[in-house]
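Board notes, transcribed. Complex of a protein with adenosine-5'-triphosphate.
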Amino acid sequence: MGVEIRVEGLTKSFGRQVIWQDVSLTLPAGEISVMLGPSGTGKSVFLKTLVGLLRPDRGSVRIADRDITRLREHDLYEVRKLFGVLFQDGALFGSMNLYDNIAFPLREHTRRSEAEIRRTVLEKMEMVGLIGAEEKLPGEISGGMRKRAGLARALVLDPEIILFDEPDSGLDPVRVAYLNQLIVDLNAQIDATFLIVTHDIASARQVPDNIGLLFRRELVVFGPRERLLNSGEPVVRQFLHGRMQGPIGMAEEKDAAQVELELAQLDRGAAAGDGGGARVVTPRLLPSPGITRPPRWEAIARREAERHSREEVSGT
Ligand SMILES: Nc1ncnc2c1ncn2[C@@H]1O[C@H](COP(=O)(O)OP(=O)(O)OP(=O)(O)O)[C@@H](O)[C@H]1O
């Protein structure tokens, strides 16, 4: 059913450079969360800290009742087996075909027979739609297929948690749409806890249960998707609409007076009905027909239906 990850007061620096500080959030078991933030705000560093590849300066990361920031290397090795990680480029071995790439974690970490390995590898390749491509080398396939192969490899040890580092980077919008559907379907099927780092606003609006945003060395917000999509927080609105007006500048931060001016212009635009300030809650992406949804989907559907009827009553 996936495991909860509870992060409290987490701070990470490299030398004198503070990457983020005092980050606290809970990734609910079995849910999909997305982490957003301008480039260089430390989203990848956050993923690496969760999996114990980087040690924080302060704070805790509790997974299955253990604070992984305090574990010795040997115990960390055990906890890491709970994780599947999809790196940006799929991180496949270029000289191995897809079958051997996907079988790799099973050969490294388990004593399963080749027949058992074959069953698992083909099952995961089927889940990500790669049956028939077993003999292909990573260099012979498209970027989208490489991502799916990386995902199949992240799935072979039946992880409780899957971390995705920009799964949509370098893909065209149609491939991104397919990948998003695959992520939602997989989450419904295996019911693991997912954390996705992305820059793709359309994905962030449709896919997750929860959204977080890192900005100016802090976690500015973390909460349910509908609440964030409705948020009046300037930085959240700016990011989710992908526009220039707001606190995020070219070099990350902007002059406060300039930000105020831009926000006032946006509000005037919204009042005049040009949609500049509109807060739109995009419908969420549902699992494909035929996929049995875990019980939490009923609660989500109820929550969203209630919000919908509230909006209809208030006429917004
Ligand atoms: N091992 C390291 N040693 C020193 N500095 C590092 C290390 N890893 C990351 N950094 C620095 O931490 C900062 C955050 O990097 P990170 O890659 O996590 O950002 P990001 O939010 O994922 O960016 P992007 O969206 O562009 O991928 C950068 O300034 C980077 O140079």
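The first strand starts at residue 5 and ends at 14. The pocket of adenosine-5'-triphosphate is lined by residues 14, 19, 37, 39-45 (CB under 6 Å).
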